[in-house]
Structure formats: C-alpha cells, structure tokens
C-alpha cells in the first residue's frame, strides 16, 4: 500500500522538468496519472520514458479554455474523477520591465495565471471529496528579482489564488496548497540561466546547489498526500534557502 494507490492524478505540463518528475513519483506510489502538454511528440516521448501502463497523455494548451473543456471531458469519461490536481504548466521569460511588450505580457499572464485559474475551475466538478490541489508558483513570488516583473507577478497571483481556493474549497474537504521552487535544473532553467551566469546565481543559494525536479516532486507528493491532511492554503518554498538565508 502506498500513498496514491488507486488515486487519479492530473498534472498539467507533465512532459518535462518538474511535471514529469512528479508524474514519475506519483506513478511509483500507485497513482493513475494523466499528463498534459501542447506538443504531441513531447507527450509521446514522456509516456515512453515513464514506467508501467498507468499513464495517459492528453494534448492541450492550459491557456485555451476549449482545450481545458476537452481535457476535463476526456478525464471524466475515462476516470470519472480527479483526486490530485497539480496545476504546473508554466512558461518564463525575463527582461527589464521597461522592455516588456504587450504580447509577451499577455502570453505569460495567459498561461501562468489565466491557465492555472481555469484549469482549477474546469476541474472542480471532477474533484473527489478529499481531493488535493497543488499549484506551482515560484520563489520569485517571495523575493524581487530584476527582470522578472511579469513572471513574478503571475506567480504571486497563483499564490494568492491558492489562499482563496483553500478558503472556498476547505469546507468541502478539498485542500489547496502551492509550491514555490527556487532554481531547479529543468529545460526552463537552462533556457533562462546562461552557463556563464550560473556561479553568480548559485552564490545566492545557501544549500550550495541547484534544485532538481525530484526535490520539487517530493514536496508536491507530500502536499498531495494524506500525510499533509491538515495543511491547507500554504506555500512550500523549495529553494535551498534562496529566499530566506544569505550565504556567507
Ligand atoms: N525550473 C525552475 O527553476 C522553476 C522555478 C520556479 C517555478 N517553476 C515553475 O515550475 C513549472 C514547471 O516548470 P519546469 O521548470 O519544469 O519547466 P519545463 O521543463 O519547461 O516544463 C514546462 C512544462 O509545461 C508545459 N507547458 C508550457 N506551457 C503550456 C501550456 N500553455 N499548456 C500546457 N502545457 C504547457 C510544457 O510542455 P509543452 O511545452 O510541450 O506544452 C512542459 O511540460 C512552471 O510553472 C514554472 O514556472 C520552475
């Protein structure tokens, strides 16, 4: 018997990085896992790399409401419910606030905030009585970083959303928490942190290493599990000390 035996887990953005590691962790613990992403070939590759036959990949853009309808329809038809929702799909880009163009602002807000908001809203009718929602925020919701104005604001928005949803859904027995990863070595990290900048970035991390997708997957699995049954409306920062500790 493991924490997620027989549970149905929906993970948006499950083809890479943190979402993929969380899919693997929940599969290892007995869940039936549904992963999403925008790209069919990346979905196929993710399924190929995951163990067993308890994973279903569904193509869809988390920022597109009709895709979300199709996704939730497919999950309803196949499984009838969702026990764990990890609203993880997100994108990042960094530039000084003075240089942010309207279309880039809209892209980030659309995927990182609107996408998470409607992913949760559309999944609500499927949530089981003791379901758990985990939302992927970011350390940048907790500490200002030059160049991160729009990205950080989208993450602060989902952090706030977590608290409101906890208040709205708590009385039904549904818990809502968020995670705030620090610098986690995923494709997103490598797209945004140049190799020559990494030593300076790492100097801010008290633990002296970048995080792994597994570090975050372990925290998501804990928050989603019955071991966290009295944890609601919280944000768990997984950052090696980046936000709260200044290394010598
Ligand atoms: N890595 C870090 O240092 C870090 C730190 C703090 C927070 N985070 C957050 O962690 C989450 C996962 O990031 P990651 O680092 O694991 O990045 P990643 O490796 O780039 O993975 C992002 C995942 O999201 C999917 N995705 C992106 N836009 C989507 C959309 N519109 N609809 C559906 N799926 C979408 C991607 O698949 P497709 O591209 O195929 O759609 C991919 O599966 C993000 O919300 C990110 O903001 C990451």
Automatic annotation (TrEMBL):
CDD domains in the cross-refs: SDR_c
Entry keywords, A to Z: Oxidoreductase
Residue ranges occupied by any Ketoreductase domain in the UniProt entry: 7-182
Residues forming coiled coils: none
Taxonomic superkingdom: Bacteria
Signal peptide limits: none
Keyword Oxidoreductase carried by entry: yes
Residue spans crossing the bilayer: none
InterPro entries on file: KR_dom, NAD(P)-bd_dom_sf, Sc_DH/Rdtase_CS, SDR_fam
PROSITE patterns registered for this protein in UniProt: ADH_SHORT
Family: Belongs to the short-chain dehydrogenases/reductases (SDR) family.
Identification of the protein by name: SDR family oxidoreductase
């Amino acid at each position: 018997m493991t924490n997620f035996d027989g549970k149905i887990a929906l993970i948006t953005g499950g083809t890479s990085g943190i979402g993929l590691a969380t899919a693997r962790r929940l599969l290892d613990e007995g869940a039936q896992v549904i992963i999403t992403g925008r790209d069919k070939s990346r979905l196929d590759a993710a399924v190929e790399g995951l163990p067993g036959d308890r994973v279903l990949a569904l193509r869809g853009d988390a920022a597109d409401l009709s895709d979300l309808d199709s996704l939730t329809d497919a999950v309803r038809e196949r499984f009838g419910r969702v026990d764990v929702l990890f609203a993880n799909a997100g994108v990042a880009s960094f530039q000084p606030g003075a240089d942010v163009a309207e279309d880039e602002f809209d892209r980030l807000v659309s995927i990182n905030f609107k996408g998470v908001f409607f992913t949760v809203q559309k999944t609500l009718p499927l949530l089981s009585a003791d379901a758990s929602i985990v939302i992927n925020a970011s350390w940048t919701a907790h500490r200002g970083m030059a160049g991160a104005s729009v990205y950080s604001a989208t993450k602060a928005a989902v952090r706030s959303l977590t608290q409101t949803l906890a208040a709205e859904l708590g009385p039904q027995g549904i818990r809502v928490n968020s995670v705030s990863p620090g610098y986690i070595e995923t494709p997103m990290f490598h797209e945004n942190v140049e190799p020559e900048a990494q030593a300076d970035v790492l100097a801010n991390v008290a633990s002296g290493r970048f995080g792994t997708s597994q570090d975050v997957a372990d925290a998501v699995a804990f928050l989603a599990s019955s071991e966290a049954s009295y944890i609601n409306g919280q944000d768990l920062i997984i950052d090696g000390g980046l936000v709260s500790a200044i290394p010598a």
